[in-house]
Amino acid sequence: MNPILLTPTDLIIASSLVVLDAVVSVWLGLRLHKQVLVAAVRCAVQLTLVGYILRFVFAIDTPLLTLGLILAMVAIAGREVAARPERKLARYGNQIAGLSAVALATFVTATFALATALRPHPWYAARYAIPLAGIMLGNALNAASLSLDALLSGVMRERAAIEAQLALGVRFREATKPLIRASVRRGILPIINVMSAAGIVTLPGIMTGQILAGLSPIEAVKYQILLMFLLAGATGIAAVGAAYFAMARLTDGRERLRVDQLR
Amino acid sequence: MRLRTQALKGAAGGPFDFALGAGDAMAITGSSGAGKSVLLRMIADLDPHEGTVALDGVERAAFTAPDWRRRVAYLAAEPGWWHDDTAAHFPDRARAVALMPDLALDAALLAQPVHRLSTGERMRLALIRTLLNDPPVLLLDEPTGALDPQATRLVEAILSARLRAGAALVIVTHDMDQAARLGARHYHLQAGTLTPQ
């Protein structure tokens, strides 16, 4: 079965639904019409650009360019993670924790998938490596930013409790364990929700896309399951990474709690 | 000397050089924000600083940080709690229960959740928590600030007993008579300098 190819006209017709949103906004005085239209235009322009970039990169398919593009995506994701929490660690701590967490999560899970389940030839083929890294990054970003935010806001709230334990001679990693646990938990919960609801409440996007593109539902489902598991791995690594990397910036050689490192 | 500080400098000011022998007590007064708590925290190695501190002649660097803090015990003015369950803060429950009557605390309090305890009950329980480590040096930040006169006397009796047993005590207080009752040397902290009174 061949995919039904879309024409620009199809998309223009579909855009009438966005215009409908804008009309609703004007009608109800939501003052959202400008934002809706700007967002829709951004969406179209960004995705078109990405489409052309990917076509270019897939066509050239050199490992160096693939790696470069993935690194750029990782850098942007790391910046997003760092920007999310209300509180910031000194000396670029948020950036370092965010970047390390998403980079670790993405490289570990993407390499794992390319080496086991997918095994394209060559294993670093851009057509597989880039989309895979992209979806891992998106979810790692989400998990890392939730975990980092929970940790940085929690550490101020729990400061007295942590320091009371330190003052009694409890080790720093013991005293901060409940906070690490709560942060990692916050980062991982969304993927658990998504996995539990998959197929019942929602048809996951990738599967829907593949079915629409003509793949058999069973094949699409297999891909989706693989991706879900990979995403579970990526979010776990990202949440744990962000919490531990950030906590490392909040202590020193004498196991103090250094809230002075938090702005 | 039980506790000796040398060229101790940090957010509380300094340099602070003082020594306390076994059984010695030192009371520190000063307006709020003068750095009394920070001074205690520096001695306990909870805040970054310069200078050295020694316990019984052994430099702090020779101890791991947790070992040091178990021996040179800091108790904050508003101590934190890390479980809802009060009893969970006392791994050695029997010893805690044994100390409670001395501070007019009913052992049944351990069954209460922490948020149900009064400020004064929490303060006394936190003191017990600290004393259970049998620290040779006690750094107490207004331990009787939230207590009525009767409970204050009980706390002072326990502290005096610890002093007689050879502990050294640094106490932040606003109560001049308390310093006298504990036989403590009185210092005033102002503009980063400790002045004997």
Task: Write up this protein.
Chain A has 263 residues and is an all-alpha fold. Chain A has ten helices and no strands. Chain A has helices spanning 8-28, 33-60, 63-83, 93-118, 126-157, 159-167, 172-175, 177-197, 205-212, 217-248. Chain B is α/β, with parallel strands linked by helices and 197 residues long. In chain B, 29% of the residues lie in helices and 27% in strands. Chain B is built from six helices and ten strands. The two termini of chain B are 22 Å apart. The model of chain B has no long low-confidence stretch (mean pLDDT 96). Chains A and B meet through helix 6 of A and helix 2, strand 6 and helix 4 of B.
Strand order of the largest sheet of chain B: 6-7-8-3-9-10
Tally of contiguous helical segments of chain A: 10
Oligomer: heterodimer
Shape of chain B: globular
Helices and strands of chain B, in order, run as: EEEHEEHEHHEHEHEE
CATH homology superfamily of chain B? P-loop containing nucleotide triphosphate hydrolases
Low-confidence stretches of chain A: none
The helix count of chain B comes to 6
**CATH class (first level) name of chain B:** Alpha Beta
- Along the chain, the helix and strand elements of chain A come as HHHHHHHHHH
Count of domains of chain A: 2
What is the strand and helix layout of this fold?
The complex is a heterodimer of chains A (263) and B (197).
Chain A lengths: L7 H21 L4 H28 L2 H21 L9 H26 L7 H32 L1 H9 L4 H4 L1 H21 L7 H8 L4 H32 L15
Chain B lengths: L2 E8 L2 E8 L4 E5 L6 H8 L6 E6 L2 E2 L5 H7 E4 L17 H7 L19 H13 L5 E5 L7 H16 L3 E5 L3 H6 L3 E6 L2 E4 L1
Parallel strand pairs in B: 3-8, 3-9, 6-7, 7-8
Antiparallel strand pairs in B: 1-2, 1-4, 4-5, 9-10
